[in-house]
TrEMBL record, chain A:
Signal peptide segment: none
Annotated InterPro entries: CDC50/LEM3_fam
Transmembrane segments: 60-83, 317-339
PANTHER family for the chain: ALA-INTERACTING SUBUNIT 2-RELATED (PTHR10926:SF29), CELL CYCLE CONTROL PROTEIN 50 (PTHR10926)
Family: Belongs to the CDC50/LEM3 family.
Protein name: ALA-interacting subunit
Subcellular location field: Membrane
Annotated Gene Ontology cellular component terms: endoplasmic reticulum; Golgi apparatus; plasma membrane
This protein's encoding gene: LOC116211209
Domain of life: Eukaryota
Organism, as annotated: Punica granatum (Pomegranate)
TrEMBL record, chain B:
Intracellular or extracellular location(s): Endomembrane system; Membrane
Gene responsible for this protein: LOC116196232
Domain of life, source organism: Eukaryota
Organism: Punica granatum (Pomegranate)
Identification of the protein by name: Phospholipid-transporting ATPase
One Pfam family here: PhoLip_ATPase_N
Keywords: ATP-binding, Magnesium, Membrane, Metal-binding, Nucleotide-binding, Translocase, Transmembrane, Transmembrane helix
Catalytic activity: ATP + H2O + phospholipidSide 1 = ADP + phosphate + phospholipidSide 2
Length: 362, 1105
């Protein structure tokens, strides 16, 4: 964004000047010129006379700035839009359809009833060629992972150090169970997403890579390698998914992904990767277990298969906004150009008058 | 209530009245902490921050670490408490020094030395020459056989001349040994602060005198802090002691000054606070509603069904804390910091160093520099402030011959020297009058050099001049005056002194030549008091012309005259003089009449011209500042004529026909009222005319007007741009300042003497000139400068820049806090209105304390216009005076900008980082980076001049932001671990940031450019002219431009005369257009009578109470 730097159009202000100049001039000339550079700089600082450039908003400069901005932004917008468009994604909402007809009127009862099988099958049709790797996300809508009560209810120390860390007060209300501490504690871990998906193309099972879905840094430094789930989901209230108590937290990648709380109430989290291309007209069957309760608060669950570009997933926002800003800039520069041509007043054409501050009245 | 002081009877008054311990301290060791804290917490901002800090201690609601508020808070409080403590300690030290000074008192008839603090009412205090008076005393005896003593009262009223004080008649002639045993009672009023009044009675007990009551006046007292001069010893009885002395009563602790800008910032803070409360209430209610309707359904939040009793309060309080950054705590620290830097700039300024004395300017009060830029009224002392207070005899006219006209210096005029050499009788007589017609006391030091103690600077100048012209006044030995002329000694016997009064405007002495026995009357006085009494045959035209000529040059003139008296005539007159002198009723009037009888048929010898030189650059300074829209009032203890004279000389008032002087006078209520009404009428009519109207008022009329017609005076003060107040007392000066302040004007008082101290303390800004009358004023003042002309630079350069910079800094501080706060508020709408903070504690604290505070500090180097341009176009100060750069509407602009930027940052970051990217820490850091980048560009756009430091601060700060975040991102335990690295590798981060910058700054740049080019303010126009080398505007061709001035500002199209006649026109000649334009002929018009001869006269005599 070098365009923003204002060009140096002006003189360096002269060091001395006193409008009065009656006898003050002598004080300056009489003062010995400071010898060293540092002293000179200090002197200039104390006299507030450091050399300065004083940019001024000239029409030429402003108009060309907007023009350059516009010219630069529109291509960037087009490129971004193109990147976004090159991403192929399949979004399938399944939370409503996976409820058996009998429970359509009372979905909450369905999800809370442990005896009913939660299995559900979905068919996904591939429209365009999807190049590997294809990312599998689950998307939750209207889910407030950023709620204050929720965000704060975790203990990063415990995740790293496990039971050595006794202070789980920050994990309220899921800090302990039956007098014993819970690992991992807190609402975030407790509400772990636990739907699962199995993909088959035609009759052949699609291999889904569930490794390395979490950030490496989290696995290495945020979640303990020797910390095992303990006393987790043992209480009267079961939140979300359970964890295998024999796998250390650093390998519980679903948990790690889940614990990276989202800032928006609508978010996608990585489930896995398909590492082969999907071709148009491929029919993919998803066998999913619909365990997670989004019914009680009116949320939505979606399964997302998406390729990726250099800009990330499918998101037109940047491209569209770039084009909008770019064209606005060109528009503004044209308006200013017209204004300038119509009414090109010479700069500094000023006439002065005397001002009086207060209106004279009582 | 009265107090009875029993002389020499310690016990009776010991417990009744306090001892002489002086205390100027504000605190004691014990009450320091509570009192100081109480004082600090009386400011709204501090209360607010304390409340926030306390709330943050509650972990349930705090979004961030409490230390982020407590740290700065404690720091701020510690700094200001330390400063207070240091000041108070210094006061204690100076008090201690005064209290422990040794003084002699008489106790039980024995002289002994005690500490000054142990003096009690009723003690007899013994003073020697040059001693400082420790408390208020009533004189009992002096070394002088006539019971006189001389005191210097400069510390009390700023007048440097010596005053005579006299022993009460009852004590006259008591032997010094007997004085030790004197007993009596003084009945005096309770302590008050009137230094001109002391109405008391003295009754001595037998055996001294029978029980006659002897009246006492101020002439019988010597007051605290005066010095005894030219008197071997004096003794008196203590009547008021300690802080109850006249000085102590009038001292008063000066109130801390608050600038208009601080007041405005406080006001805006209040507005923001109200806004905050509204936001908090709305969000709090919304949060609670959301919680009850939605959150209970959200199983993963596990809201308990039954909360504690305070549950309803939790969410509002959370929002309160979340929004508490709306009022930036850093603003106080930043402001204090830049303010002390402004003060330092004043101290450092090489162009405000007085070359003669080498004194640099000094800002004692570091907090009020912005006010300098908002000054509307300057109240100035005359003598010593505008003038150098150095009277020098320059010219004279003896018998129609002008001396000193060629060289401007009579001492160098060969003709005069020749005439003295030749012994011309007229010249000799002239010199004799100069030498002895006065009340000067020659003091011969051991080395033989003679110095003079004069009550009036004019007399001093004349005596010195005479001495220089070989007529040396050597000695005043009781009644024998001895002068030396060319090594021959001449002695005169002083028969009578006809004292100066302001009515008579002359003084005379009657002397007898000791050799010839002839008796002479020697007179000197104002021309109008001397010339009419010339003897019938004398042609006075030459003298009239001389006086005219001198007056036009701004010289103070005196006419000298003499007459030989026949012994019979003298004897006869002498009797009536003595009679008048001892009369009890109407003594002054009777004396004047008697004097009149002998002061006639004078032979006028000549005219002297004395110069009280204006300081360098005074007229230019006043002209520039008046152009800048600052109104000048001159408050002087001097005479009216002299004041007007000086006012004319220094551009204070314009000469005819531009200027017009209106006189308010009168001795009674009615007279004053009538004249006040007339002046007001004229003022109201002439406001529409391009005229410089000034009113002139003297102390007496002012007193009446201020007591009885305050409203009218207030109106007058608003209407009048210029005023001359003569013969005013220190307290009246302060009252006038108060009056202007009550009309909501920003006042600056400038003076040099002790008599200006109260005015200086009272005014919004006090400026002291470290001058001839000592350092009193300079010490009491907020700023001290060496010369009056530095005022221009102080106001136009330092004041203006300070104002501009603070205006920017304070609004910017709010802007940046609001941006982050708005983002938090927006975020709360997508986080279930639960009060989640998008940013983590570290970011929030660093944002307020570091990222955004450092760059803005270098705005203290910003200069919107160069110094030369400001000096050339002082009108530009108007923007500061009218508060154009910091007011609710500019603030609304910044508020809108912050809202806009918050929207841009928020919308773009949540949309660009949606779905799979919507990780909390990442979104938070994207939004934060967006803010930081925007801040950098806002700073860039709002900076007018870039020095290397600004570039460093703005771009260096941006770099520092990334470096700091990289560091945090490298710490595994931090919440931000790896986030910044992740973002910086991600192209979409940079694309997002550029989008934020372009979308955020584009409209602002466009708006600014549009305003700058098509709706330019005067500042913009000057900037364009200055930087693009536009035509240098000459002020001579100024035309009023009505469009440019907002409605609330009435354009007063006063145009300064471009050229001024080399010789000033006499003020108020009878030009018809000036006087009768607005009034019909015959309208009673209290116009200052045409004074073709603005004679200056010696005025100092009259100051003596």
């Amino acid at each position: 964004m070098g365009q923003f730097e204002l060009p140096i159009e002006s003189s360096f202000s002269a060091m001395d000047v006193d409008g009065g100049g009656i006898s003050t001039a002598s004080s300056l000339s009489s003062s010995v010129p400071p010898p060293s550079r540092r002293k000179k700089a200090l002197y200039q600082f104390t006299q507030q006379s450091l050399p300065a450039c004083k940019p001024v908003l000239t029409p030429a400069w402003v108009i060309s700035t907007f023009l350059v901005l516009g010219v630069a932004f529109i291509p960037v917008g087009i490129v971004s839009l193109h990147a976004s468009n090159s991403v192929v994604e399949i979004v399938e909402r399944y939370d409503a359809e996976c409820v058996p007809d009998a429970y359509k009127s009372n979905k909450v009862a369905y999800i809370k009833n442990g005896s009913i099988s939660k299995n559900c099958t979905k068919l996904l049709k591939v429209d365009k060629l999807m190049k590997a790797p294809i990312y599998i996300y689950y998307q939750l809508d209207n889910y407030y992972q950023n709620h204050r009560r929720y965000v704060k209810s975790r203990s990063d120390k415990q995740l790293l150090d496990g039971l050595q860390n006794n202070d789980t007060s920050s994990c309220k209300p899921e800090e302990s169970n039956g007098g014993l501490p819970v690992v991992p504690c807190g609402l975030v871990a407790w509400s772990l997403f636990n739907d699962s998906y199995i993909f088959t193309r035609g009759a052949v099972p699609l291999k889904v890579n569930r490794k390395n879905i979490a950030w490496k840094s989290d696995r290495d430094h945020k979640f303990g390698k020797r910390v095992y789930p303990f006393n987790f989901q043992n209480g009267s209230l079961i939140g979300g998914g359970k964890l295998d108590p024999h796998i250390p937290l650093s390998d519980q990648e679903d948990l790690i992904v889940w614990m990276r709380t989202a800032a928006l109430p609508s978010f996608r989290k990585l489930y896995g990767r398909i590492e082969e291309d999907l071709h148009p007209s491929d029919l993919i069957t998803v066998n999913l277990t619909n365990n997670y309760n989004t019914y009680s608060f009116g949320g939505a669950k979606k399964l997302v298969l998406s390729t990726s570009s250099w800009l990330g997933g499918k998101n037109d926002f940047l491209g569209v906004f770039y084009i909008f800003v770019g064209s606005s800039c060109i528009f503004i520069s044209l308006v200013f150009l017209l204004l300038h041509l119509k009414d090109s007043r010479p700069c500094g054409d000023a006439t002065f008058s005397y001002w009086n501050r207060k209106n004279v009245s009582l | 209530m009265k107090r009875y002081v029993y002389i020499n009877e310690d016990e009776s008054s010991h417990d009744l009245y306090r001892d002489n311990r002086i205390s100027n301290r504000k605190y004691t060791t014990l009450n320091f902490l509570p009192k100081n804290l109480l004082e600090q917490f009386s400011r709204f901002m501090n209360q607010y921050f304390l409340l926030i800090a306390c709330l943050q201690l509650w972990p349930l609601i705090t979004p961030v670490n409490p230390a982020s508020t407590w740290g700065p808070l404690i720091f701020i409080f510690a700094v200001s408490a330390t400063k207070e403590a240091w000041d108070d300690y210094n006061r204690y030290l100076s008090d201690k020094k005064a209290n422990e000074k040794r003084v002699w008192i008489v106790w039980n008839g024995i002289k002994k030395q005690i500490k000054a603090q142990d003096i009690h009412v009723g003690n007899i205090v013994w003073l020697r020459e040059n001693d400082e008076v420790p408390c208020d005393l009533v004189l009992l005896g002096t070394s002088d056989p006539q019971g006189l003593c001389y005191v210097e009262t400069s510390a009390l009223d700023g007048e440097t001349d010596l005053k005579t004080r006299v022993v009460p008649s009852a004590c006259m002639g008591i032997d010094s040994e007997l004085l030790h045993k004197i007993k009596g009672v003084i009945e005096c009023p309770n302590p008050d602060k009137d230094i001109r009044r002391f109405d008391a009675n003295l009754r001595l007990f037998p055996p001294f005198i029978d029980n006659d009551v002897c009246p006492l006046t101020i002439k019988n007292t010597i007051l605290q802090t005066c010095y005894l001069r030219n008197t071997e010893w004096a003794c008196g009885v203590a009547v008021y002691t300690g802080n109850e002395t006249k000085l102590g009563m009038s001292r008063g602790i000066p109130e801390p000054k608050l600038t208009a800008m601080d007041a405005m910032i406080d006001k805006l803070t209040g507005a923001i606070f109200i806004f905050q409360i509204v936001v908090v209430m709305v969000l709090g209610v919304a949060g609670n509603v959301w919680k009850d309707t939605e959150s209970r359904k959200i199983w993963y939040v596990e809201y308990p069904n039954e909360g504690p009793w305070y549950e309803l309060l939790i969410i509002p309080l959370r929002f309160e804390l979340l929004c508490s950054i709306m009022i930036p705590i850093s603003i106080k620290v930043s402001l204090d910091l830049v303010k002390s830097l402004y003060a330092k700039f004043i101290d450092w300024d090489q162009k405000m160093i007085d070359d003669e004395t080498g004194t640099a300017s000094h800002a004692a009060n570091t907090a009020i520099s912005e006010d300098l830029g908002q000054v509307e009224y300057i109240l100035t002392d005359k003598t010593g402030t505008l003038t150098e207070n150095k009277m020098i005899f320059r010219r004279c006219c003896i018998n129609g011959v002008f001396y000193g006209n060629d060289s401007g210096d009579a001492f160098k005029d060969v003709e005069l020297l020749n005439a003295i050499e030749a012994g011309s009788t007229d010249v000799i007589r002239f010199l004799t009058i100069m030498a002895i017609c006065n009340t000067v006391i020659p003091v011969q030091s051991k080395s033989g050099a003679i110095s003079y103690k004069a009550q009036s600077q004019d007399e001093d100048a004349l005596v010195h001049a005479a001495a220089k012209l070989h007529m040396v006044f050597v000695n005043r030995n009781s009644n024998i005056l001895e002068i030396k002329f060319n090594s021959s000694s001449i002695q005169y016997e002083l028969l009578e002194t006809l004292e100066f009064t302001s009515d008579r405007k002359r003084m005379s002495v009657v002397v007898k030549d000791c050799r010839s026995g002839k008796i002479f009357l020697l007179s000197k006085g104002a021309d109008e008091a001397i010339l009419p009494y010339a003897f019938a045959g004398q042609q006075t035209r030459a003298f009239v012309e001389a006086v005219d000529q001198y007056a036009q040059m701004g010289l103070r003139t005196l006419c000298l005259a003499w007459r030989e008296l026949m012994p019979d005539e003298y004897r006869e007159w002498s009797l009536s003089f003595k009679e008048a002198n001892s009369s009890l009723e109407d003594r002054e009037w009777k004396l004047a009449e008697v004097c009149q009888r002998i002061e006639r048929d004078l032979e006028v010898l000549g005219v002297t011209a004395i110069e009280d030189r204006l300081q360098d650059g005074v007229p230019e300074t006043i002209e520039t500042l008046r152009k800048a829209g600052i109104n000048f009032w001159m408050l002087t203890g001097d005479k009216q004529n002299t004041a007007i004279q000086i006012a004319l000389l220094c551009n204070f008032i314009s000469p005819e026909p531009k200027g017009q002087l209106l006189l308010i006078n009168g001795k009674t209520k009615d007279e004053v009222y009538r004249s006040l009404e007339r002046v007001l009428l004229t003022m109201r009519i002439t406001t529409s005319e391009p005229k410089d109207v000034a009113f002139v008022v003297d102390g007496w009329a002012l007193e009446i007007a201020l007591t009885h017609y305050r409203k009218a005076v207030t109106e007058l003060a608003i209407l009048s741009r210029t005023a001359i107040c003569c013969r005013v007392t220190p307290s009246q000066k302060a009252q006038l300042v108060q009056l202007l302040k009550s009309c909501d004007y920003r006042t600056l008082a400038i003076g040099d003497g002790g008599n200006d101290v109260r005015m200086i303390q009272q005014a919004d800004i006090g400026v002291g000139i470290s001058g001839r009358e000592g350092l009193q004023a300079a010490r009491a003042a907020d700023y001290s400068i060496g010369k009056f002309r530095f005022l221009k630079r102080l106001i136009l350069v330092h004041g203006r820049y300070s104002y501009n910079r603070t205006a920017f800094l304070s609004q910017y501080s709010f802007y940046k806090s609001l941006v982050i706060c708005f983002i938090q508020i927006f975020f709360s709408f997508i986080s279930g209105v639960s009060g989640t903070s998008l940013f983590n504690s570290v970011s929030l604290m660093a944002y307020n304390v570091f990222y955004t505070s450092i760059p803005v500090l270098v705005s203290v180097l910003d200069k919107d216009l160069s110094e030369e341009t400001v000096m050339q176009h002082p009108q530009i100060l108007f923007y500061c005076q009218a508060g154009r750069l910091l007011n609710p509407s500019t603030f609304a602009g910044w508020f809108g900008r912050s809202l806009f930027h918050a929207v841009v940052v928020f919308i773009i970051s949540i949309h660009a980082y949606a779905y799979e990217k919507s990780e909390m820490e990442e979104v938070s850091l994207v939004a934060l980076s967006g803010c930081i980048w925007l801040q950098a560009f806002v700073m860039t756009l709002e900076t007018n001049s870039f020095t290397i430091l600004q570039h460093l601060a703005i771009w260096g700060n941006l770099a520092a932001f990334y470096i700091i975040n990289w560091i945090f991102s490298a710490i595994p335990s931090s919440a931000m671990y790896t986030i910044m690295f992740r973002l910086c590798r991600d192209p979409s981060y940079w694309i997002t940031i550029f989008l934020i910058i372009a979308a955020g700054m584009g409209p602002i740049l466009a708006l600014k450019y549009f305003r700058f080019t098509y709706r330019p303010s005067k500042i913009n126009t000057l900037q364009q002219a200055e930087r693009l080398g536009g035509p240098i505007l000459s002020l001579g061709s100024i035309e009023p431009q009505p469009r440019s001035i907002e409605r609330d500002v009435a354009p007063l199209s006063i145009t300064q005369p471009k050229m001024r006649n080399p010789v000033y026109e006499p003020l108020l000649s009878d030009s018809p257009n000036s006087t009768r334009r607005s009034f019909g002929p015959g309208t009673p018009f209290d116009f200052f009578q045409p004074q073709s001869r603005l004679s200056a006269s010696y005025s100092r005599n009259c100051k003596d109470n």
